[in-house]
Amino acid sequence: MTELSTPPAEPGREILVIGAGPAGLSAAFQLHKYGIASTILEADDQVGGISRTVERDGWRFDIGGHRFFTKVRAVEELWHEILGDADFLLRPRKSRIFYNGAYYDYPISAGNALRNLGPAEAARCVGSYLWARARPPKDQTDYESWLVARFGWRLYRTFFKTYTEKVWGVPVSEMPADWAAQRVKSLSLANAIVNAVSPRRNQKKITSLIEEFQYPKYGPGMMWEVCRDKVTAAGSKVVMNTTVVGVRHADGRATAVVARDGDGGTTVYPCTDVVSSMPISELITAMDPPVPAAVARAARDLRYRDFITVALVVPAGKVPWEDNWIYIHDPQVRTMRIQNFGSWSPFLVKDGRNVLGLEYTVFESDAAWTAPDDELIEQGRRELAKLGLVDYEDVEAGYVVRQGKAYPIYDDRYRANVDVIRGWLAEHATNVHPVGRNGMFRYNNQDHSMLTAMLTAENIATGTAHDVWSVNVEEEYHEEGAGSAAGRPGGSLGTGRDAPVLPRASVDAAAGPATRP
After folding, report:
1. Contacts of 276 (CB under 8 A, 6+ apart)
2. What is the pLDDT of residues 181-223, one digit of tens each?
3. Residue 320: is the preceding peptide bond cis (ω within 30°)?
4. Which one-letter DSSP state was computed for residue 286?
5. What is the phi/psi pair of residue 325, to 5°?
6. How far apart are the first and last CA of the chain?
7. Which class for 216: exposed (0-12), middle (13-18), buried (19 or more C-beta within 10 A)?
8. Cys bridge to 468: 131, 214, 421, 452, which one at CB 3.0-4.6 A?
9. What is the DSSP string of 467-496?
10. What backbone torsions phi and psi does residue 6 show, to the nearest 5 degrees?
11. Parallel, antiparallel, or unpaired: how do β-strands 15-18 and 38-41 relate?
C-alpha cells in the first residue's frame, strides 16, 4: 500500500469535490499528486457511494457485487496505489442461472443444459432455435425479436425474458433491438456450444466471461475508506452528512458551494473548481441563480432505477452453492439475483454463518421502496423458501439496504436532456466538472467512473483538455473488442456498460409520470 506523497501545496486553489464515492475520492487522490488539496462533501454517513460496503452488526454487504476487473491500466494502478496487494483477494468467478429448481452454467454449458432440461426439453429448445434461424422474426426492431432470432422462443423465455424485465421494469417486447446487452451480445446458442467444448481458459476477450477477479478482502468499501484516510492525511478535508443545496455562480463560473449539515446549519465553501459526482439533475436544481426553465425541465425529466438489497443471515452449511451470485429467472419471485457474500470474501461474514443478499430493482414510486424493513425481510425469507434454496426457518436475521438512483435510465429523451444540461454548464459554469455514474448520467462501471475523475483532476491541475464525456466509447472495453464506435446506436455510445434505450411511455407506465428533482 503506497502512502500518498503530496508535493508542495499550490496556493490559490480551492477545489470542492461533491460526493465521496469512487469518482469523487479518485479525483481528490489524483489532485494531491499535483499538490492540490480539496474539500470533499458527502451527503451520507459513509464513503463509497454505490461502491460502499455497508456494515450491520459485524456483517458487511457489498451493494450489487463489485468485481475489480478492468482493461484500463491507469485504474488498475490506482487501485494498487490505494490498497496494498495483501488487501486484495483473487477470487474465482462463478455465477449461474437458477431456473425451475436447477442451476445452469454461465457461460452456457451444453452438457449442463442438457442434464437440467432433460433430453426432451433440450430437443425442443434446439428445434425452436433452428426454427428461429430458418424463419427469424421479420421485424427485429424490438429486443424480444432480436433475442428470439438468436436463441429461439424457448431459450428466450427460459434465460432472458424474466430477468431482463425484473432489472428494468419494462417488457422486453418494448425494448429496442439496438441494445445488445453486456451479457448477451457476444453469445448465441451456436458459440455457447463452441465455448462449452473448447479448452478451458481465462476468457478475458469477453468481459462477462472472465474467470477470476480481484476483490478487497473487506469489500469494495475498504478501497474508499482507505482512500479517504489517505487524502485526509495529505491535507484534504472530508465532510460527512453534508448535502449540497446551492452552487453559486456568476460570469460563467461557480464561485461557492452551499451545503447543509445534519443539524440543519449551512456552510458556504468558496471554490475555484467544483468536481461533482452528485446526480446531475440535482446539481442543476442547486444552481444559484436558477437555471433557465428549459434547462430545469431537462434535469427534472431524467429518470432513475433504484436498488434494494435484503441481506439474510443463514448457517454457512445451508447455502447450497459456491457462486458469487445466482441469477433468478423464476417469474414467481421478485428477486432478480442473490449474492453469496461468503463466496466474495470470508472476511464479510462470521461465526460459521453466511449472508445471502437478495437484490431487487425498483422505482421510488414502487411500494417496496418505502415498505418497512421487516416486511421486505419476510418477503425475502418466503422467496428463498419458495425457490427451495434455504428453508424459511433457517434464516436467522435480516437487514435492508436501499440505494437510490442506482441506475440512470436511458429513455428516448435522456440524451437530448443531457445535451441541454451539458450545453448550459459549458457556457455558464465552466469550472463545474461532472464525473462518475450519476454525475454524468452515465451507466458507468466503477473503473470508468474513476477514469472520468482522474482525467478531470489532470485537466484542473495541468490545463489539459481531456474530453471526459468520451470515456467508455472505446470498443476494446466491451466484450467483442471489434467494430466501429460510429456504428453503435444512438444513446448507447459511450456508456461503457450497455443499457437499453427505453421508450419513455413504457418507463412512465411502469414508474408513473411524476417528475423527480
Report:
1. 18, 19, 283, 432, 433, 434, 435, 439
2. 444 555 555 555 555 445 454 444 444 456 789 999 999 999 9
3. no
4. T
5. -155, 165
6. 40
7. buried
8. 452
9. -GGGTT--GGGSSS--S-GGGSPTTTTT-S
10. -105, 125
11. parallel
